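Please check this:
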Amino acid sequence: MRYANRLTGLFAGLILSAAPAGLLAAEPIEPGAIQQESAQVVNQLLSRYHYNDRASGDDLSRAAYEAYFDALDPQRYYFTREDIDAFADRRTRLDDEVSTGRLETAYAIFERYRERVQARSDYALQLLDQGLDFEGDATFQTDRSETDWATSEQGLDRLWKRRVTHDALKQKLSGRDMDAIKESLRGRYERVARTLNQYEAEDVFQTFMSAWAGEYDPHSSYMSPRRSENFDINMRLSLEGIGALLGSEGDFVEIVELIPGGPAARSGELSAGDRIVGVGQSADDIEDVVGLRLGEVVDMIRGPKDSRVHLQILPPSEAAGSTQDTITLTRSTIELEEQAAQAEVRTVERDAGTRRIGVIEIPTFYADIAAANAGDDDYRSTTRDVRNLIDSEQLEGIDGLIIDLRGNAGGSLDEAVRLSGLFIDDGPIVQVHRRNGERRVLDDETGNAPAYDGPLGVLVDGRSASASEIFAAAMQDYGRGVIMGDQTFGKGTVQTLINLDRFGVGNEDTRSGRLKLTIAKFYRINGNSTQMQGVTPDLEMPYPHGNDAMSERAADNALPWDTIQTADYRRMNRLNGMLGELQRRHERRLREAPALRAVSDEAQRMRTAREETRVSLNEAERQAAMDRQAEARLTAINTQRKAYGQEPLGDLSELDPEAVPDVLLDESAEIIADLAELRANEGARIAGN
């Protein structure tokens, strides 16, 4: 399944009929001089400096040919097999065209694509006028990324009829009447075709060159001048808006990343990969935004602090019976304090008394570089803040400490290294390996004694990536602490942004784009890569929202896991063979604790729902499936609430996400309390001898 450089399709097929009378066809798009120059520079940079030493030849050409069609039509709604084969004689010519700046094939394929979208849009409008049936026994496959291309227009017609029915039924089950549904979908289908007719040469180049770069690895891509500007806009949006980095994926605007401390992250209702299909300034006036350009959607979402925005959301992959959820967020300015490390204390009752377990949540690895460069001795950073929290009265006398890295997508590599130094004596933390074989070992160079030497746990999940994985891996390799949670994301690569104007592309009147290029890989000090595998916890937790489809392991062309030489380090072995007993106690609670069983059941239910990509187009059956899912979720939540002495909810509409018990954090506290007991017993045994 592709999650990088993909364009998510909307429609369910295309017909090859002519456009209706009176509809003017858009002028063909041709590459300009700047696209021709950019193609040559991007190709040279990829072949010379990308970590993956892949030759630019016929094999790459054939792969990029397929990838380009996938980028335009990943869900197989537009092209037929005949369309794919129509350009087959050019499969091995793309590398020659790119290296010389001739891009005729890429633009010719796009013209075919645009024709198909216009024709399918016309067909969709006809279906809306004819009326839709919600009482039959038809079904719809929501994920067609692995299916074959349709062999005929008639096959696409049948698929398209089901797609329109599916789009309409989702809105109908959300409570909209048919007149409003038809108006919404009519605007959507017309808008997607109209937007494509507004494409310029750079828009086509963006799609093609990102597909080309994506054949090296999923994190390398081309960013057009407009996309670069949108990227910068979104970074500002993340600081003064809903706190989300957005990206354009075909017809959809997608959440790429949630900014820690922002309204989107605090809501608990949004995740990376969610697609925004509607935006409104009031709950009663939400505008369909499928097919709109990213910049337009960004402008709709942005607004003054303390104002509200209402978003209609579709998950990354629709589960059976899924509908468009409406999320209400209050815009705000994200302060550094909200992104900074925060501490709390969890208490665990045991026969020997109350155990106080400190928790330090680190949303991201940050450092105020500008203040540091200006000579400010009190500049903020992850390591400084964590050290201050460890030394604070709040955490004084704790029996154990948890570093909570759930949802931490990374940040400053230097801070990951420095933070590791707070918990070990000295030694290497991570290795960086480049294409030319250069190996650099990053060490804890402070030479200071550990800031905390007691029982330690690190809590991670599938969204813990990059710098988070470096810290967790170091603690695991040193035997310093127990890693708890879900397998991490698995991003072990390093990227750099290159402005093409450095190579003479563009001029004062015409801006150039950027290339995001993978230049190195991270390796653990034990020599294993964090790429693909990430960090496997010592003790696993049942995560309901864990989704392996959004990890590095699901990405096409991800660089492989491998090993290099081990760094020179000495294990601390603070666990001293205690993992087996910790595992036994943890598994007993998983079996016996009602709240943990409920979380485990919910995790299994959600995994099953994600795997079910075929949904009924019968309204009654679809509603029944939704009701069953809602009832199962309500039961799981109420079981957790009961275990915490809270009143049960009568309906999911009563749910306050911030009031849901953090069952997994409490289990982590139990584990570290176990570790504290085992270490105390070990110390007493040694003293007795």
